């Protein structure tokens, strides 16, 4: 069974008498352990799509099936629980609590869900190693670099072993080196932990780490790029840039 299915998603926004069609019938399926990138020009519907996939917004028409849950049939409380138990979010702005240490920020979803953090000690240790923050675990966000803060946010997204991680411009506030580090960690989480990841990005370098890249324009999927596994990051970037230029022509 796929981890995620988007079925004929439409999203309309009303601005006075004007109707904006942010999504105009999006269909796609994501399998377990797959790393998918979503790209497109500003206003193409990327973030709107991600928010609907994650249950943060609802579609005007169509539906989303997340880990066997039909989100359109759930009430607000059920949607919140489905989101909490099945999705890890990573945002451009790290959204860390400033009064908590790195370790405490990572464990926050466990605490919110009413579980005992001690039961996740092994998971915590493995994630801190994965994001290379074992020696910074007791530091608060203002004592960490931007790249380190994003790595905390990534570990926090993974701590509950979610069905899927949704990342919205996770490298947007980072320099090239830190951004590359984040994408490499996401790639490793797919390979080593069979984690499913969807990343919305405008950065072809970030998208090059995905196994498959979907291109949106005017609320529709207009192209898909699926390189061979042996294709280098540089070659993938070149292929992505070529498609972007074709779509903008």
Descriptors for this entry?
single chain, 249 residues, alpha/beta, Rossmann fold, 6-stranded mixed beta sheet, 4-stranded antiparallel beta sheet, 8 helices, 37% helix
Describe this structure in words.
37% of the residues lie in helices and 26% in strands. It is α/β, with parallel strands linked by helices. A six-stranded mixed beta sheet has the order 6-7-8-3-9-10, with helices on both faces. It has a four-stranded antiparallel beta sheet with strand order 2-1-4-5, covered by helices on one side. Strand 1 (4-15) and strand 2 (18-30) form a beta hairpin. The protein is globular, with a radius of gyration of 18 Å. 42% of the residues are buried.
Q: What's the quick description here?
A:
The protein is α/β, with parallel strands linked by helices and 249 residues long.
Task: Furnish the topology, listing elements before pairings.
Blueprint: E1 4-15, E2 18-30, E3 35-39, H1 46-53, E4 61-66, E5 69-70, H2 76-86, E6 87-91, H3 102-112, H4 121-130, H5 146-158, E7 164-168, H6 176-193, E8 196-200, H7 204-207, E9 212-217, E10 220-225, H8 233-248
Helix pairs in contact: 3-5, 5-6
């Amino acid at each position: 069974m796929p981890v995620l299915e988007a079925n004929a998603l439409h999203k309309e926004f009303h601005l006075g008498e004007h109707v904006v069609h942010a999504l105009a019938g999006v269909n796609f399926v994501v399998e377990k352990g797959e790393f998918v990138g979503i790209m497109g020009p500003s206003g193409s519907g990327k973030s709107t799509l991600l928010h609907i996939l994650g249950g943060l917004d609802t579609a005007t028409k169509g539906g989303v099936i997340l880990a066997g849950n039909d989100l359109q049939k759930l009430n607000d409380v059920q949607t919140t629980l489905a989101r909490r138990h099945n999705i890890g979010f990573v945002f451009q702005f790290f959204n860390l609590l400033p009064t908590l240490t790195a370790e405490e920020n990572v464990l926050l979803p466990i605490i919110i869900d009413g579980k005992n953090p001690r039961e996740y000690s092994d998971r915590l240790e493995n994630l801190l190693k994965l994001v290379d923050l074992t020696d910074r675990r007791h530091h608060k966000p203002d004592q960490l670099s931007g790249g380190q803060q994003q790595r905390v946010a990534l570990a926090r997204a993974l701590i509950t072993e979610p069905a899927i991680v949704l990342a919205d411009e996770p490298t947007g506030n980072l320099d090239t080196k830190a951004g590359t580090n984040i994408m490499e960690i996401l790639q490793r989480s797919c390979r080593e932990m069979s984690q499913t990841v969807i990343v919305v990005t405008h950065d072809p370098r970030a998208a090059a780490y995905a196994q498959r890249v979907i291109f949106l324009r005017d609320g529709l999927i207009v192209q898909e790029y699926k390189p061979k596994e042996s294709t280098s990051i540089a070659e993938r970037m070149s292929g992505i840039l070529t498609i972007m230029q074709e779509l903008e022509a």
